């Protein structure tokens, strides 16, 4: 490559992400002049669909936003509405919701770690090519994912877009014996997750660290799923009701998804690395121990190592699922009756990709007047651009094809779900001689 | 491992998403077959779970909407030879569709002894749209072909 030549790197289709968008990077000499994560998938307008619907429909409608993390949408919707209406749930329902979330994390993290992200590190174009050389690894992934599917199917009534979760509890709860049937599989899954940590820790990672503001839900006693205060490593400590006082969404001309920033500061990072760094002491001992053995100590600042962090969260999800099953006694009241009344409620829960904020205003008939949803990919969007601005600068001298692949990999560090944020990513890198040569 | 004492009838698995236009074609096939008393599974879930869905079966038919560039509603059948340049309907999860599930199963040696894929060419996969008229004709075509197979 000539340092004076103008170069354009273009990848028309970035695979292994959910959604449709493109990435544009302009390099002038050795300087990265512009980075734009362009999400052109049309807005999906779910917040508008929700207006005028009864609060009891919100969980089923919002579950349709994503096929990978429908439970996250259900949990945030349900918790926000329960806060609006002052609903108190049976402690066993609370436990079941944690188990429900474990199922989704196992499904989603397995899919991303093995099927979407690992091929990058091993130099394969996709999981099919990877399976030719790593058959046992892919078989392990398929079995792990199936176990997550089983949990979701049992608690949600079906594997995709579950239907059993409701404001006030569940329409149908499992028996103790139904949960006990999961134990043998989950014990295998826990061992497989530990192996996943060891396997991912052996991958090669670029030397790249950033000074992030990590934002995650924090609970005094547990690795948070549904409850807690929203905290950061830079002093943020708020209730979900204060979210919009501290975060704002910005429209950028080139994207159909809003950029989320912290007021008075800028981009921030949500998801596995944020949770791990802020809540390491709440992980079960088995997860802490394997993380330390894998060389992970908070704060982890290299986004490429997020694949190992996700694997640690797989360990957590399996261990937590087993704990819940051992403690479970069916609730006396699977679902409390929730009368109609006016109110406003906000909730934040931890989707696999990070915090998911919902706010609902209800009228006296229980109908939704306004709804606001801020998904994790929207919150990470600006942070992805900031990462790429720094990372692309390291790739100036790289051959175009390799540089482009590395940038795609950097995007996949975030497991972006563009469908949630507003689907395929196209990557274009322009290189320009600063002297016009 | 499952043991089977007698030959299992063919397993028919119809894949798709009713909420995404022509991607719902195979689900219409399943419903029509069920009306005719022919057992057909609806697989509306995640494509990789297909590998489990056909586990234990010797003779499997998968029906799905496809995009090959043929005219809309065209029915294509891949018997023994797997489709190589076919894209599943673009409503899949994180870029993994039925075609990828079949290719992955091949690498993992988890294909059934006989797998036939009935593809119905689709054209529109937008959220909230109905199956197009030409595709509905393709649905009837597939139903007729599978019904004839099961009556042998």
Give me the side-by-side strand order of the main sheet of chain A.
Answer: 1-14-2-3
Order of helices and strands of chain B: EHEHEEEHEH
Strand content of chain A: 15-25%
Q: What is the CATH-assigned architecture of chain B?
A: 3-Layer(aba) Sandwich
- Overall tally of structural domains of chain B: 1
Number of strands of chain B: 6
Output mean pLDDT of chain A: 90
Oligomer: heterodimer
Name the biggest interface.
Answer: A-B, 29 and 18 residues
Cα distance spanning the termini of chain B: 29 Å
Question: How does the helix and strand content of chain B classify structurally?
Answer: alpha/beta
Provide a short characterization of the protein structure.
Chain A has 15 helices and 14 strands. Chain A has 437 residues and is α+β, with helices and mostly antiparallel strands.
What does this protein look like?
- The complex is a heterodimer of chains A (437) and B (152).
- By secondary structure, chain A is an alpha+beta fold.
- Chain A has helices at residues 46-50, 58-62, 70-85, 91-122, 127-133, 135-156, 176-180, 183-201, 243-246, 272-279, 285-293, 306-327, 376-393, 400-412, 418-421; strands spanning 7-14, 21-28, 31-38, 165-166, 169-170, 215-218, 229-232, 237-238, 247-250, 259-262, 343-351, 354-362, 368-374, 425-432.
- Chain A has a domain at 1-42 and 393-437.
- Chain A contains 15 helices and 14 strands.
- Chain A has a four-stranded mixed beta sheet with strand order 1-14-2-3, covered by helices on one side. A three-stranded antiparallel beta sheet of chain A has the order 6-7-8, with helices on one face. In chain A, strands 11-12-13 form a three-stranded antiparallel beta sheet.
- In chain A, strand 7 and strand 8 (237-238) form a beta hairpin.
- In chain A, helix 4 packs antiparallel against helix 14.
- The radius of gyration of chain A is 22 Å and the shape is globular.
- The two termini of chain A are 13 Å apart.
- Chain B is α/β, with parallel strands linked by helices and 152 residues long.
- Helices cover 28% and strands 21% of the residues of chain B.
- In chain B, strands 1, 2, 3, 4, 5 and 6 form a six-stranded mixed beta sheet that branches.
- In chain B, helix 1 packs across helix 4 (133-150).
- The longest helix of chain B has 18 residues, at 133-150.
- Chain B starts with 10 loop residues before the first strand and ends with a helix.
- The relative contact order of chain B is 0.25.
- Classes of the chains: A alpha+beta (437), B alpha/beta (152).
- The interface between A and B is medium-sized, with 29 and 18 residues.
